[in-house]
Sequence to fold (330 residues):
Amino acid sequence: MATSAVARDVVFALRQKIAKIEGTLAERLVSPAGGQPVAGLLVRRNGHASPRDFFLPTGVERLDEVLGGGLPKAALIEIHGTETRNAGAAAGLALCLVSGMLKERSRPRDLVLWVGTTEMFREAGHPYAPGLASFFGISAESLLLAEAPKAADVLWIAEEAARIEEIAAVVVELRGNPRSVDLTATRRLHRRAQDSGRPVFLLRQSAAPEPTAAPVRLVVTPAPATLRQTLLGPLAGSIGAPVFAVEIGKSRTALPGSFIVEWNPDAHTLAERRDGSENRIAVVSPSRGRAHPPAQAGAVLAFKPAAGEAAGNKPSREQHPAHRRPRRTG
Fold:
């Protein structure tokens, strides 16, 4: 009976691969056993179907269905930011996934290692511990930071840390496309994640797509947030929950797709936002007993125009002799 169940799961996984080639979404297939759409199953190298706990659900129902059950838990997962100025969005999604995984594990001694290059931290800054605790439920005691001058050193630290049982997840943050981040290096990271049964997130800021061993690549850009909802309605000038535009850039089991997801900082969950006016964060009462800020006196300019500036932005007559002086030759 067990052998036939495994064979049925393997056949269903093969049907999913055929559906991907034919252009049919994998979640439209129906399992022959229960008659209901179920999460897809990956086939390992030894021919056995992977168990259900192989996946790391994102919490976004439609995204998990397209991915065949969620992100692979014991694997290298790529998260790409298209531009350096969007580093916060890519790092924010990585923190959302780590927070959801820690919530599922519910082990108080779990640690998270965030390792990056000196260039990356100088450009985007270090993770802010108070913000991680309030927004993602990751305490400062559970966060480990490591900084290295070269990308090769960062990869070595990540490989060694993936072996440690107390480290629940490893986040590797790099900028651009270093030569050391090739197929060989990513294969080592992917194998370490498989052996430990925990994910390694490869956070690549301002990087172009290139071949890696990661089975899934998510491209993240910031999306407009809604206003905070109060008892009196939307709070003007406020910023609501973080919103991310997520695109499946690469997947071995899913078709390409785009999603707008919103993070709930109170429940520490991700959800798809289909209505731009909807806000899922907790409703708070407006502030009372405070005076309104004074109105602006006028427009603020970076540079004030010169008093004696001539028409057409041309230099005045007093400036012409200086421009006519001969240039230095040595």
Notes: The CA atoms of residues 10 and 146 lie 41 Å apart.
